[in-house]
Amino acid sequence: MTTHLKSTNKLEKLIPDHTYHIYNKAIGSDKLFTTHEDYHYFLQKINRFLLPVVDLISYCLIPNHFHMLVDIKAYDKLPIKLLRRYTEEPELYVNQVFSNFFNSYTKSFNKAHERAGRLFLYPFKRISVEDEDYLTYLINYIHRNPVHHGLTKSFWEWRYSSYQAIISDKPTKVNRELALSLFGSKSEFISFHKENVTKPEMRSYLLE
What is the topology classification, in CATH, of domain 5-205? Predict the structure, then answer.
């Protein structure tokens, strides 16, 4: 299978009908999440701002940064009324949605914790991935991020990732069907994570 990878800079547009590994972190020694309520509120912001324009495949939130794997919806699946404002460059609409998402969380976090100023280190990084084989490795990497940073020894116990949501039958903001389809079945999804298979080439896809 041919691998396609494209690292993008902060000025490049997010294109509908493409899949992206998205990452951002807190500025300096600050944290994005200091309480359970912060994590919960961030996920609420995903519901409000991002789910109308993306399918969320996987995510992981840890104190000073987060990872998301998202599939930007095709043009005909985007909210028509809002999209009409960007008829000449519809890609700008998706980018504006993400900007609104980060700004909204920053304002809410600052208000809750009596702080001011920037919260995120930079406009979010993103890597476009168009190879289903590599998507499975990315999902495993994202779910194992708390182990990588020494926050837990058991990635499946981390409360703020999509792993448990994907293997459960409870309602979830994650597109469970899409995530599991990349592995073939729920049992293969679980086995893949347990085996923790990696590829040397994966480093090109990883943001931290």
Answer: Alpha-Beta Plaits (3.30.70)
- Identify any residues that bridge with 66 across adjacent strands, giving them in sequence order: 24, 61
CA distance 169 to 102: 30
Alpha helices (runs of H) in the chain, residue ranges in sequence order: 36-45, 80-83, 91-113, 132-143, 145-148, 163-167, 176-181, 186-195
Identify the residue whose tokens are 């994590």. Answer: 39
- Listed residue (171, 34, 158, 54) closest to 101, CA to CA: 54
What is the per-residue pLDDT for 92?
Answer: 79
Q: Provide the CA 193 distance to its chain's centre, in angstroms.
A: 18
Query: Mean pLDDT across the stretch 177-194?
Result: 95
Least confident range from 88-92, 98-102, 173-177: namely 88-92
Task: Report the pLDDT value the prediction gives residue 134, as an integer from 0 to 100.
Answer: 85
* Cα 104–chain centre separation: 17
Q: In what order do the strands lie in the sheet with 125-129?
A: 5-8, 125-129, 19-25, 65-72, 54-62
Q: How many CB atoms lie within 10 A of CB 157?
A: 12
Spatial distance between the Cα atoms of 105 and 24, rounded to a whole number of angstroms = 13
Residues 6+ apart with CB under 8 A from 82: 93
Place of tokens 């509908």: 16
